[in-house]
Amino acid sequence: MADNKQPQLNGAYYGPAIPPAEQPRAHPRYSRRRSCCCCLFGFFWKLLLALIVIVGIAILVFWLVVRPQGFKYHVSDAKLTQFEYDNNTLRYDLVLNFTARNPNKKLNIYYDRVEGRASYEDNWFSSTDVITHLNSFRQYTKRSDPMSAHFAGQHVMVLDQQDLDKFNSDKARGAFDIDLKLKFRIRFRLGDFITGDYKPTVKCDLNIPLATSNNATGFQSTQCDVDFF
């Protein structure tokens, strides 16, 4: 009689190997959409870089051709006939003459408005209009033009002891350190093209002799600082 016994198995038997689960495949439509978005992003990025390069080259060419410069400004003359302080009140009479120079070879400058503010030891005491729409003007290339301002009147101003000592010292030597700040509104013109408004600030540190003082000396022409930012 034939022996039908199954052969003994060595070790545990776990059955046939289980095939790995199939990974879900991306939908063809989603893949195409993603590829299209990447292409668009790459196109716009290259376009942006090209525009930046073109604008940069245009600015460089403009600067090389036009060589734009800000105007130059100085106080050419000053006359201080009154500068008295008592009872917390300053009485003053000051006339200033300025010269504005346009150093550009191709740019004209429109001076639309200029406002002057005078102060002593950081104490403001007077403001006046130097240029308004009534006397605004166009300054042509390589040209210098005069301006003037008159500060006169009285102003209540409380000086502390340090400022009062400085005032008495200036009075004894016959000259006062007066700070002037001018607010500009200007435009530039190149050919038929006119820019928008620019609003630079001009600062002048002045040492002005008192005309009635025996110790007074002549006023020295003073260059001012022009700040476009």
Automatic annotation (TrEMBL):
Major subcellular site: membrane
Cellular localization per UniProt: Membrane
Keywords attached to this entry: Membrane, Transmembrane, Transmembrane helix
Keyword Cell division: no
Transmembrane segments: 39-66
Domain of life according to the entry: Eukaryota
GO cellular component: plasma membrane; plasmodesma
GO BP annotations, alphabetical order: defense response to other organism
Keyword Cytoplasm among UniProt keywords: no
Name this polypeptide is given: NDR1/HIN1-like protein 10
Biological classification of the source: Eukaryota, Viridiplantae, Streptophyta, Embryophyta, Tracheophyta
